[in-house]
Amino acid sequence: MHKIETKEINLHYGNFHALKGINLVAKENTVTALIGPSGCGKSTYLRLFNRMNDLIDNVEISGQVLVDGEDIYGRKVQVDDLRKKVGMVFQKPNPFPKSIYENVAYGLRVNGINDKKFIEERVVSSLEQAALWEEVKDKLNKSAFELSGGQQQRLCIARALAVQPSVLLMDEPASALDPLSTSKIEELIHTLKKDYTIIIVTHNMQQAGRVSDYTAFFYMGTLVEFNETKIIFTNPKNIQTQNYITGRFG
Amino acid sequence: MRISALVTSITIIMIVFFLFREGVGIFKSPSVEKGYVIAVNKSNAVETLNSTQLKNIYDQEITNWKTLGGKSQEITVFRVEDITNYYSEEELGANMEYLPAKISEVLAKTPGMIAFFPSTYLVKNFKGKVLPLKNISVANFLGGTEWFPTAQPSAQFGAWPLILGTLYVSLIAILLALPLGLATAVYLAEIADKRTRNFLKPVIELLAGIPSVVYGFFGLVVIVPILKNTFHLDSGQSGLAGGILLAIMALPTIITVSEDALHNTPNAMREASLAMGASKWQTICRIVVPYSSSGITAAAILGIGRAMGETMAVLMVTGNAAVVPHSIFEPLRTIPATIAAELGEAPQGGLHYQALFTLGCILFIMTVSANLMAGYISKKKRLA
Questions:
Q1: CATH numbers and ranges of domains, chain B
Q2: Rounded CA gap, B250 and B180, in Å?
Q3: What's the confidence (pLDDT) of residue B380?
Q4: Which residues in chain B have their CB less than 8 angstroms from residue A92's CB?
Q5: How far is CA A23 from CA A8, A19, B243, in A?
Q6: Do A80 and B266 touch (CB under 8 A)?
Q7: Which of residues 257-296 of B touch A (CB under 8 A)?
Q8: Is A137 inside a domain boundary?
């Protein structure tokens, strides 16, 4: 059984056919990069896995999205529970207007956990996992907005980790960050791979090459090529993939 | 741009300056209207009187000089028209030309007498003692419970019932309007679909444009009878009626301002919360509302400001009784209603006129402190 699998996914925004029959699998504890030019559907595809597309009106989805073998669009699925299992990190750092501590604790609190000690342990371990603990341990009660952009993004990762998901979706997590912060995030992705299955959307070819095990190239709503990252970057089978990777378009 | 900002600031400063210049004047004058004097017999040991004492004397609640620190002696109250009790019309002359002299005479004859008469009747060799009168004190003005601005001989400027009335009505209004308005705003911004929102929002904004007199009519015809029948009151005109009416009037402001604030919460905040497995309600309560708390505070301030300053509608439904209200079902009177109702009758520059300006100052201070308080609370909340 694969950790994540989509079967013949079609998605329409009104009349616009955004995803056209996507089949893809992701193994547990791997990093899959979704690349492609803007508007190719990679972010839409990513948002299938925690059903964030539900928030948009006029979306029609057909096909199957399986997480741990379960169709997450099935009738019995509780979206809230799904989103605990499938965490997400957004393009721009979007910490809540709360303290650093409360940002990380948020996911636990909304899930009805009130045990102070438990929350505290989880906050600390999440911040440690997100490689942020050393930088913020003395100012946990300060507002999250006092952190730098890179720190904020790692805080958002810690926040996502606090509810202990098994899948982590990342939508261009480093695109709004400076190179130094970006490399920190990339290192972090490397370490998180041990415990999580990660799907990352990125515009940055080098980043995809550095962090991912598998790469999927999307173009105009179709999955053009999917293979091990090494192969995609050194020996792509499709001419479009080759053109995109070598920077001829996109 | 800079010029218009400057003009605006200067205008505001001028209004405040003018208000306070006029308003503070009252504390420099005694409570007896200019052109009148209070006089007693020369043997009287009492040196001065304040407005409350004067009123109590003339209401015959104080009947002995002992109470006021003088000798034990009955007080005889004298007004100009009482002169006919002492002298015949012949003695006063055909054109009352001997009246001033006779006042002086009767005062000298009667040891316990206190007289109130125009200062033009003060003869040169006056045989009584003109009492110097105490100025109206701040404490008396703020704490006094009686508002009889045209009472003779001494006007009573006790603003306490009016201050309390204003606070009562505003408090009721804001307690009703804030939860209701916030709930509506949340519904409009977060829950309602686009079509409902596009229909409801202009309707609510339209409410803000209805003249307050029309609201007053509505209150008088609808709210007052309902209250009267529900609570079996003698009259439905009460602080509660005013509060309800003001709440309705403040609602559009509160709804539109806080709805805007809620609506402007970045979608990224909502998505982040939902992506953590939070429900829609949790997202609204824990993220969206706190995020827009400053906008909601602004809405509350504007609402309170409207409630405190509203004049016409309140005047029409609160029953206009300048007494200290003991319950929300009793008639009361607010500061703006008092100013609106009485300014037309108050001679310009007179004591009453100044007193109304002082009321304006008090109202100004009340609204400013409400604003400061709301700002302080929201600041404190944001840090937590």
A1: 36-136 (3.40.190.10), 160-383 (1.10.3720.10)
A2: 11
A3: 65
A4: 268
A5: 5, 11, 64
A6: no
A7: 266, 268-279, 282, 286-287, 290-291
A8: no
Which of the four pLDDT bands, split at 50, 70 and 90, describes residue A250? Answer: low
Q: Whose CA is closest to B159, among B142, B174, B172?
A: B142
Residue B383, pLDDT > 60, answer no
A129 within some domain: no
SS3 call for B37 = strand
> Per CB distance under 8 Å, which residues of A are interface residues toward B?
50, 52, 55, 80-84, 87-88, 90, 92, 94, 96-98, 106-107, 109-111, 143, 156, 159-160, 163
Looking at residue B34, its pLDDT comes to 77
Are the C-beta atoms of residues A103 and A144 closer than 8 Å to each other?
A: yes
- What are the φ/ψ torsions at residue B150 (nearest 5 degrees)? -115, 15
Cβ(A85)–Cβ(A63) under 8 Å? no
Q: Quick one: tokens of B204?
A: 């609510």
Q: Which of B276, B291, B383 sits opposite A106 (nearest CB)?
A: B276
The answer, for B379 touching chain A at a CB cutoff of 8 Å, is no
**Closest Cα in chain B, distance from residue A247 (Å):** 31
Q: At residue A112, what are phi and psi to the nearest 5 degrees?
A: 80, 15
Q: Angle between the B351-383 and B335-342 helix axes, to the nearest 10 degrees?
A: 160
Quick one: pLDDT at residue A108? 92
Chain segment B92-109, per-residue pLDDT in tens = 887 888 888 888 888 888
pLDDT score for B373:
83
- Domain annotation covers residue A162: no
Q: Name the percent of chain A lying above pLDDT 90.
A: 42
Number of structural domains in chain A:
1
Q: At A214, which CATH number?
A: 3.40.50.300
Q: Which domain holds residue A199?
A: 4-94+167-245
* pLDDT tens-digit readout, A193-246: 999 999 999 988 888 899 999 999 999 989 999 999 999 988 888 888 888 888
Mean per-residue pLDDT, B278-302: 89
DSSP type of residue B42: T
Q: What is the dihedral of CA A198, A199, A205, A210, to 10 degrees?
A: 10
Quick: pLDDT tens for B61-71. Answer: 888 888 887 88
Pick from A55, A81, A110: CB nearest B286? A110
Whether cis (ω within 30° of 0) applies to the bond prior to B153 is: yes
Calculate mean pLDDT across residues A188-194: 90
Taking the CA atoms of B57, B61, B67 and B72 in sequence, report the sign of the dihedral they define.
positive
- Is A193 among the domain residues? yes
* pLDDT of res. B384: 47
Compare all CA atoms of chain B with the CA of A78 and give the residue at the minimum distance: B277
Closest CA to A96 of A108, A88, A105: A105
